[in-house]
């Protein structure tokens, strides 16, 4: 197994934390966006 320095471990941890937050808040809007763009007929956001 590879031994990482403490600085590398902190950077990896920070990247994982940021990625987790991005996926947490971006997943549902992405699914909604894909639903609006790939559905036929396209639903209107405003009537």
From TrEMBL:
GO terms for biological process: protein import into mitochondrial matrix; protein insertion into mitochondrial outer membrane. GO terms for cellular component: mitochondrial outer membrane translocase complex. Its main location: mitochondrion. The keyword Transferase does not apply. It is a single-pass membrane protein. Keywords: Membrane, Mitochondrion, Mitochondrion outer membrane, Protein transport, Transmembrane, Transmembrane helix, Transport. It holds the Pfam family Tom7. The chain crosses the membrane at residues 21-39. It is found in: Mitochondrion outer membrane. Belongs to the Tom7 family. This is TOM complex component Tom7. It comes from Polytolypa hystricis (strain UAMH7299).
């Amino acid at each position: 197994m590879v031994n990482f320095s403490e600085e590398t471990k902190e950077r990896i941890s920070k990247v994982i934390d940021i990625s987790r937050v991005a996926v947490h808040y971006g997943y549902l809007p992405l699914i909604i966006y894909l639903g609006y763009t790939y559905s036929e007929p396209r639903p209107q956001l405003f009537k």
